[in-house]
Specification:
Blueprint (H helix, E strand, L loop, with lengths): L2 H15 L3 E7 L9 E7 L2 H17 L6 E3 L6 E5 L3 E7 H7 L1 H4 L4 E3 L7
Parallel strand pairs: 2-5
Antiparallel strand pairs: 1-2, 1-6, 3-4, 4-5
Helix pairs in contact: 1-2
Length: about 120
């Protein structure tokens, strides 16, 4: 399994473990040089968003992957975690609808969670 796919799998699982909602993985390798995957999820409250972000950071760190940049902070309605090969976006529901990253990156390929284990 390649590194970026493994990172996406770990991030997806970390978000799922903390009950992240509507988790999407988008393969953007053919669309952008920013990263290989965007992972997008929603949380229901500031505390859940913080828990989602903290769990992604922790699980990827334990696997040997280091955060390159973080945008947003506790209490934010949108936090971005840049791990180089993957970028994780965690939103509250209102801002996720407003920014609609899925539409912006529609040229990417939606990846089902089971495809991340192949």
């Amino acid at each position: 399994m390649d590194q970026s796919k493994n990172m996406a799998r770990i991030a997806w699982q970390a978000l799922s473990d903390k009950k992240g909602e509507d988790i999407k993985v988008i393969d953007i390798t053919g669309v952008s040089v920013l990263a290989d995957y965007f992972i997008i999820a929603s949380g229901n409250s500031e505390s859940q968003i913080s828990a989602l972000v903290d769990n992604v950071e922790e699980e990827l760190y334990k696997a040997g992957y280091h955060l390159k940049q973080r945008e947003g902070r506790s209490g934010a309605s949108w936090i971005l975690l840049d791990f180089g090969d993957i970028i994780v976006h965690v939103f509250d529901k209102e801002n996720r609808i407003f920014y609609d990253l899925e539409r912006i990156w529609k040229d990417g390929k939606d990846i089902a969670p089971e495809q991340l284990s192949e």
